[in-house]
Amino acid sequence: MARRTCRGFPVCKMPENAPVKINRPLHWFAVLTAVFTFVLLGAGGLVTSHNAGMSVPDWPNSYGYNMFLFPPSQWIGGILYEHTHRLIASGVGLMTTILAVWLWLKDPRKWMHWVGVVAFLLVVVQGVLGGLRVVLADAQLGIFHAIIGQLFFVLTCAMALFTSRSWQNLQPGRVDSHLPTVGPGGVARPTETSLRTLVLFTTILIFCQLIIGATMRQQHAGLAIPDFPLAYGKIWPATSAAAVQSYNEHRMNVLAENPITAFQIILQMLHRLVALAIFILAAACAWQARRRLGKKDSLAKLALFWLTLILAQILLGAATIWSNKAADVATAHVLGGALSLVTGALWYIIAFRRSAALPEIAPVKPISGTYGATPAMAVNK
Amino acid sequence: MKKFLLAFLLMALVAVPVAWAADIVGNITLNGTPPPEVPYTPLMENSDCAAMYTNTPTTHFYVVGPNGGLGDVVVYLKNVTGKSTGASQPPVVLDQKGCLYRPQILAIQTGQKLLVKNSDKCLHNVDVQPTVAGNPKFNQMQTPGSPDLTFTFPQPEMFITFKCDIHPWMFAWVSVMDSPYYCITDKEGKFDIKNVPPGKYVVEADHRKLGALTKDVEVKDSDVTVNFTFNIK
Questions:
Q1: How far is CA B39 from CA A322, B55, B171, in A?
Q2: Does position B87 have pLDDT exceeding 70, yes or no?
Q3: How far is B149 from B172, CA to CA, in rounded Å?
Q4: What contacts A239, CB < 8 A, 6 or more positions away?
Q5: 8 Å CB contact of A74 and B37
Q6: Which residue is closest to A53 within chain B, CA to CA?
Q7: How many domains does chain B divide into?
Q8: How far apart are CA A63 and CA A57, in angstroms?
Q9: Rounded to an integer, what distance in angstroms lies between the CA atom of residue A325 and that of residue B202?
């Protein structure tokens, strides 16, 4: 029996740069998984915003029912948020499993097989963490659950990118028609290391900011500081024991389970300061990207979008305080954080790829319909 | 005859301290104006719960009487441990009624039963979150008409949170004492800790929002009066 080959290479030993047809269904499934993960983040945000994390006391069952058979008539109050979150999470878990198997079977790039495996493992860990947070009634686990959720969202978006035509067009020696890499001089140029480093640092800072945010939300203490842009009427609030006692005496929140502490006040101040630092850094990234890559460059446009997103995110943070932590506003703030993180991460990945893809060569004619072609193959074709 | 004398002696030993015991009584007042109570707006947004009210209920963080007496303050003898009589005491009842816990502040002894009722026609979950090691966490659902849930706590702890996550505005705070020497002030701020044996004690008055105040007292053979004043800053 003849062995399957692909352009002369055995399928099982296909080189990384071998041309392969773009698997559109796989790509769109990866996009769909990322979209559902975003929805899942929103559902998880609503659970915490509504203090509903413990409204279904058991796991993996729901009030003794198989999760999928739990009667909708009992989806009341906080149960609605928690149970919906579980169902969407199950869907995302299933989609991730399918995606991992699909990648393993159909994607010719071996490293993508392992990306799929990592995504699968991460979604399993995330699901178990969510369950343990309920079963062990441990709010600290909720912090890890929130952080891993953000990382998983980045991974699903990256998988959607890796399976896209745009990504394949960034193969070594290729110039992309969708993601123009041509600078003002008409010559393809890689993004400079310093700019990439700046974006990477800003993205890491956003990730740290998300950790701070998750820690704040899992305290279940309502707003530690009820005003903005000042804090208890001052630029920096008092955090002495007497001052904190006074704050607590005047807090009349029907949903705040716990009194606030000096630690929580400092944490919110840190959150504000880091937000300011992120905004400045994102502005620097947008400015530098425009200056070095040209305003028509896709990464320059993405950097500008990133800056706009972070500005919107800051406004959402302010709105969270002004609305006394209204659940929908607070959840939108969580989602804005997720989008900010993923935008920075994808910017860096694309820039890294582009820099690796464009050594010192002149632009070559784009090829559509296949990816992974080397310059030689492109010429031969 | 010897048995009779021995029994008499034992009875005397038990009876003498009780005979010498006295009450610690007093008033707790609030100096200053507390912030206004806030309406349970989320409660009225839930159709099951809103159906039980014509007007929006409000919080009772500060229960202040006409003369400034402060209710819902837990007053107890600090550092008195290992004297619990909880196991032999009748259970204390915490009710879920009108999608609120009633009462919101209560105290029991270690080993004493706490019965949680659901008098509502909707489902609640009883989520108990102690922080002291040895006091177990619970999170159980309670359907309408189902039997009372029974809880006991082996370790003393102030203000254990009871909450319903289905209705996230529902809270109660249960303090667990290791002795019978405690009391919760009434609406006029009065308290009466009964049958305290002679000795020197530290009396602590603890309010969930205002914090704790302490005073040293000595109990001899007559009632002792101790008053506290909380200042709202």
A1: 18, 10, 14
A2: yes
A3: 15
A4: A262, A265, A266
A5: no
A6: B165
A7: 2
A8: 7
A9: 41
All residues of chain B having their beta carbon less than 8 Å from the beta carbon of residue A52 are 165-166, 168
Helix (H), strand (E) at residue A206: helix A193-217
ipTM of predicted complex = 0.84
Looking up residue B108, the CATH number of its domain turns out to be 2.60.40.420
- By Cβ distance, the residue of B59, B169, B209 closest to A249 is B209
Helix locations, A218-261, DSSP H = 241-250
Using the Cβ of A328 and the Cβ atoms of chain B, whether some distance falls under 8 Å is answered with: no
* Cα atoms in the 13 Å half-sphere on the side-chain side of A357: 31
- 3-state SS, residue B15: helix
Chain B positions in Cβ-Cβ contact with residue A246 (cut-off 8 Å): 233
- Which domain CATH number covers B33? 2.60.40.1120
Which of A232, A254, A260, A261 to mutate: most B Cβ within 10 Å? Answer: A254
Rounded Cα distance between A261 and A221, Å, is 9
Residue segments in chain A with a per-residue pLDDT below the cut of 50: 1-14, 175-188, 360-381
Q: Residue A258's pLDDT is what? A: 83
Mean model confidence pLDDT for chain B: 92
Q: Is residue B43 part of a domain?
A: yes
Q: How far apart are CA B76 and CA A142, in angstroms?
A: 36
What is the spatial distance between Cα B233 and Cα A243, in angstroms, rounded to a whole number? 9
Encode A206-219: b = buried (16+ Cβ within 10 Å), e = exposed: bbebbebbbbbbbb
In the chain, the amino acid numbered B26 is G
> What's the whole-model pTM score?
0.84
Residue B169, pLDDT > 50, answer yes
Which of B178, B194, B215 marks a domain boundary? B178
- Give me the domain span that covers residue B73: 20-80+181-233
* Dist CA B17 CA B83 (whole Å): 14
Q: What is the token pair recorded at A43?
A: 């559902």
- pLDDT of B141 over the 60 cut: yes
Cα–Cα distance measured from residue A33 to residue A153, given in angstroms and rounded to the nearest whole number: 9
Whether residue B92 is contained in a domain is answered as yes
